[in-house]
Task: inverse folding
């Protein structure tokens, strides 16, 4: 990285602040698609964080079916700003096509990472406190069930051990390698 210690610290802060907000908007988007229970305290917290920006956007950008286009647009805009700030801080001026493609690749990467973490959290919670209720468990279950259900049909439990999370995680990591990495490589070549 160019720019020294202060630039590295700035990049770190930009990626944390913008990344956390993108994850909040992404969670909201995913939870709407899977029709999660929004009376859940964690869902309420996500709504509280994202509503101030998404509600005004929804007035001008309508949803398309079950797809909340305002959330999608907000994620793209925030990722574009984040990527631009990082490049500017490092003394680069990226091309618009490369910046756009890189931002979309980063959003796909963040979504895949979110699913991987959700599955790992679900696995850990099932070991630590199986059968207990926690607001996080409901949200995690809503996020992971659409991915795990097809995998469970393909790979039923073996002797009481559910290997479907491993199958899904392998698929998600392969998607990062075969989709995200080439997109990021192409984006770098356009910058």
Result:
């Amino acid at each position: 990285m160019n720019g020294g210690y202060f630039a590295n610290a700035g990049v770190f802060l930009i990626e944390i602040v913008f990344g956390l907000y993108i994850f909040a908007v992404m969670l909201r988007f995913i939870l709407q698609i899977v029709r999660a229970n929004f009376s859940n305290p964690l869902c309420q917290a996500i709504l509280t964080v994202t509503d101030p920006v998404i509600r005004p956007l929804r007035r001008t950008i309508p949803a398309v079916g079950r797809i909340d286009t305002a959330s999608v647009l907000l994620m793209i805009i925030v990722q574009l700003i984040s990527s631009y700030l990082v490049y500017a801080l490092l003394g680069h001026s990226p091309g618009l096509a490369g910046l756009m493609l890189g931002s979309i690749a980063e959003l796909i990467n963040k979504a895949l990472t979110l699913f991987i973490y959700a599955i790992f959290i679900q696995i850990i919670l099932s070991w630590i406190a199986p059968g207990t209720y926690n607001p996080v468990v409901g949200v995690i279950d809503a996020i992971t069930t659409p991915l795990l259900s097809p995998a469970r049909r393909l790979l039923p439990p073996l002797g009481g051990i559910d290997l479907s999370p491993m199958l899904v995680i392998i698929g998600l990591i392969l998607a990062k390698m075969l989709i995200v990495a080439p997109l990021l490589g192409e984006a770098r070549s356009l910058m």
Notes: The chain has a mean pLDDT of 93. The two ends are 16 Å apart (CA to CA). Residues 4-190 form one domain.
